[in-house]
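Box 3.1. Reading complex inputs
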Amino acid sequence: MNIAPLLEIEQLHAGVAGKEILRGLDLQIYPGEIHALMGPNGSGKSTLSNVLMGHPAYEVTHGTIRFLGRNLLELPPEERARAGLFLAFQYPVAIPGVTVARFMKAAVEAVRGREQVRAAALLHEMRETARWLEMEESFLNRAINEGFSGGEKKRMEIFQMLLLRPRLIVLDETDSGLDVDALKIVARGVHRALGPDTGVLLITHYERILNHIPPHKVHILLEGRIVKSGGPELVAEIERRGYDWLRESAAATS
Amino acid sequence: MADLPLDNKLLQEYAHGFVTPVEEELVPPGLNEDIVRTISRKKGEPDWLLEFRLKALRAWQRKTEPHWAAVDYPPIDYQSIRYYAAPRRLSAGEGMDPEILRTFERLGIPLHEQQRLQGVAIDAVFDSVSVATTHQKILEEHGIIFCSFSEAVRRVPELVRQYLGSVVPPGDNFFAALNSAVFSDGSFCYVPPGVRCPLELSTYFRINAAGIGQFERTLVIADRDSYVSYLEGCTAPIRDENQLHAAVVELVALEGATIKYSTVQNWYPGDEQGRGGIYNFVTKRGECRGARSRISWTQVEVGSAITWKYPSCVLRGDDSVGEFYSVAFTNKRMQADTGTKMIHIGRRTRSTIVSKGISAGESRNTYRSLVKFLPGADYARNHSQCDSLLVGNRCTANTFPVIESENPTAILEHEATTSRISEEQLFYLQSRGLDPEAARSLIVNGFCREVFQQLPMEFAVEAVKLLEIKMEGSIG
């Protein structure tokens, strides 16, 4: 079968403030696949999510990223979002005074196209989605992430993901700081967003979330490169042995 | 934060900058006793009003222009300004010029009774005169007097005489004295005891003629236990020279009365080089004269080359309440020095100040306030919050809050912040599909939300849209 990949990363070198963090990363994600990217602190996980979304502070020095056949690196963040890329942030920022409803109307209009959106239908969709995520309806009238608990912030990210209907979902440590109930809701949201055309990149350093969102493929990121890829069994191996054994083999091959 | 190229972006054009081709009757430029007498005669005023004007003129002649505000401008030649301009047909008693009707329609203010705005009675002021007041009938049914100032002088001279200058005396300050000498028209409103005004009352000020100043006078009196909400909007054509606007607004709230006074000021601000634009030197003051009265100022200031304006409350009545909610947006070379004064005289008087200053371009935005507790103001309290948001790095924001307390029981809380739109906030909104301009606009509107919430709904929607337009091209 000949299906085009959603995301193709080749020999990516990137960094921030003049420091190289990703050193030759390769990754391909096909429609319908869930990939987990695991690695210890400082291995480059967040750098990858920031580079994918186009954070202005991060610099790509070498390599290519293609998303749905387009050169992702040429697009500003808003066009990446409109093309179907979604990043659930590890630390979502607060925007005082801007309500969730108002923000989401602007975002959905930008992503789906203004003419595709009817205000009443969208409001209904927002209410239904909020309920489904077990959030109070008053949530829509709160300012974005202002005074939100850790769990509320993560659910806010999932709420946005469901409304924006992305093709590729990048979850940047969405599991960190979540209790089991919140984690289940997040997982439920991801499953709802998944379809045969959708892909997921789950960035984490715990196996916990992977019990709720089982990946098809698992990659281990160390010092800016993927040093090992495999199936779900790799998760258990990391759980048992940690990362150090991979560090040695990474050093041996470099 | 990455510095985006402001200079390459076309700054937003001012949409209300057209000139109406209308024949106007003008007085010669200059200011002296003859001019004041001419204005008074043209308006057929009683002697006491002429006396009021002459007294003000003498006070003005003794005063010098104040320069304590953080604004710079070349000297104003007061003898080159024309102090009166009126559409000729109107002053000849031939009814309203269709061009003027069209002007107000273009500004979104239909004056025809058939198309008038729902729920808002409007007094339209074109250059020096009031050209129309809508919804007269329904107001009269409630005993509310809402008309042009000139008409009020004819219809209810005793009310005008009793209250005119009682809050802002003719010699109060340089610009108030100037206004008191030459004011040509404006709006008058009286709400009788116990009446809740069923409509929003609104005055729309339009400067049209070149080389004139606009000096209008607004007087609002809310009698015992009455309520009125008043809106004010302003625009002017694009002109290369600066034009002077020195208005006086006086509000009087008697026992138990409430006045809400909202302004959306969008005078022409001048171009990128700072050429042209309105000098907006305005004295606005309200007196809570009776116990339990309340005066609330809400202003959205997005225009004018220079703004010098401090809507204030004199809290004389016990338990009276003063409020000031302000958004001041400056862009290009605009300069705004604005804020408020809260003078606590009565016992348990309360005041709230919420000021949001946004500076973009190369503009200068200053917040200035005085909160004063007089010896009798037992257990009075004030809460002040003033926040500044900087867009780009070539603008400046200043904050000068002054507190004077002569009463040890008074309580005061003051909070102030200065911030920039952060790269992380922008990136977050962009990652959801918003372009940088829409993202900035959303952040700025969020910053102003507390103030916009104070505006009547339709005005709030207008204010949000207006700020969005003003934000376009203000990236720095």
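In summary: DSSP finds twelve helices and 23 strands in chain B.
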